[in-house]
Write a structure and sequence with these properties.
This protein is of the alpha+beta class. The chain has one domain: Alpha-Beta Plaits (2-Layer Sandwich). It contains two helices and six strands. The strands form two sheets. It has a four-stranded antiparallel beta sheet, covered by helices on one side. A two-stranded antiparallel ribbon has the order 2-3. A hairpin with a 2-residue loop joins β4 and β5. The longest helix is centred in the C-terminal third of the chain and has 13 residues. The protein is globular and about 35 Å long. The termini are close together. The structure holds iron/sulfur cluster.
């Protein structure tokens, strides 16, 4: 079971590319030029991905930290 969840408010993306530059294993730019969190699931305009490892948490937190509009977050999963 995933320990953390990465959350992306994709519709507010300004297409700067910073997340995909620092964390390309998790982030890519889609055909419309918006960031896409790979393998994420969309629900109510939030794209989310469960992750398990500290390494994954750190790299996605880096993506969150470089996002100029602060639309990426990494949280501990509640069960
Ligand atoms: S860093 Fe933020 S604004 Fe820039 S492409 Fe990624 S999600 Fe979009």
């Amino acid at each position: 079971m995933a320990k953390y969840v990465v959350i992306h408010k994709k519709k507010e993306c300004i297409s700067c590319g910073a997340c995909a530059a620092v964390a390309p294993d998790y982030w890519e730019m889609d055909d419309e030029g918006m960031a896409h969190l790979k393998k994420s699931i969309e629900s109510n305009d939030l794209w989310t991905l469960g992750i398990d490892t500290e390494e994954a948490r750190v790299i996605n937190q880096e993506a969150a930290d470089v996002c100029p509009v602060d639309i990426i977050s990494v949280k501990e999963k509640e069960n």
